Amino acid sequence: MIEVATNDHNTPEVLLRVKNLKKYFPIHRGVFQRHVGDVKAVDGVSFDVYRGETLGVVGESGCGKTTMGRTIIRIYEPTEGQVYFDGTDIATLKSREMRELRRSMQMIFQDPYASLNPRMSVERIVGEPLEVFHLANKEERKQRVARLLELVGLNPNFMTRYPHEFSGGQRQRIGLARSLALNPSLIVCDEPISALDVSIQAQVINLLEDLQEQLGLTYIFIAHDLSMVRHISNRVAVMYLGKIVELTDQDTLYANPLHPYTEALLSAIPVPDPIVEEQRHRILLEGDLPSPANPPKGCNFSTRCPRKVDICSEVEPEIVEVEPGHFCACHLVQPAAATS
Description:
Elements: E1 14-29, E2 34-50, E3 54-58, H1 65-72, E4 80-85, E5 88-89, H2 95-101, E6 105-108, H3 122-132, H4 138-151, H5 168-180, E7 186-190, H6 198-215, E8 218-222, H7 226-232, E9 235-240, E10 243-249, H8 250-255, H9 260-267, H10 274-279, E11 320-323, E12 326-328
Helix pairs in contact: 3-4, 3-5, 4-5, 5-6
């Protein structure tokens, strides 16, 4: 098993440790629904998340980012691997034990229009977690909902309204208030700004940062927008076809990307200076993302990599620590100095 872990020296406390996590969706065909294969949505990812930090997760659509996030908090059951939350392996917990632990792990969903029940008022939506866990009576729930709405920048008088009466940004704030109701330690943010107008995205990001500072929250921030990920993340993991291909702090990743796929992703970020934009080199990847039901032999990126060599099509690269805290899975990238 390949484990991606950062150095233990002078590092913050590890809140979440993921080891060789896999999530396969079976493919069945025929009258008797024979098992003929698997969609390998998440295929052996390992990483740590430190308490109070934001780990950004980036990659193309279909690379497994959302599935990984949902599997970590067991909305999806893992096929294989371990997920240690605060020292407890939640991948093996029974339903009742997991239900109690879920109070500390919440998720903000991508679509603020689909993630809120249109038949429920804001008071019921935000207060539902408190009701489910029997943490407050009706009057206490109402007071708690009012405080949560104020915390996310909404008027408490809005609690009698319904989701259709709010804008996209306001709905996402309602979803955030719901996720905060149980005082979680970890929040998985599944592309929380991708469905919002650009003018609203910055407001939501600033709110997430303010709440993190106030409440000591830890985020896994899944997104497509690389510039936004750089702004909010402490470290960034780059995913391709169910695997993490590079992981390091955000400054190092953007200044010195090592994996060819990371280089291609960063070259696609637009620069607001027309002169710089015209002069910089854009890396265009040929072909489409391979199917996770039939990944290529060797390196998953070998079918599109502009720098591939023969070994790339034969042997899967291990993810190794190339520099302190900088991990990469590429045959062309070797550790700066071999350790004895």
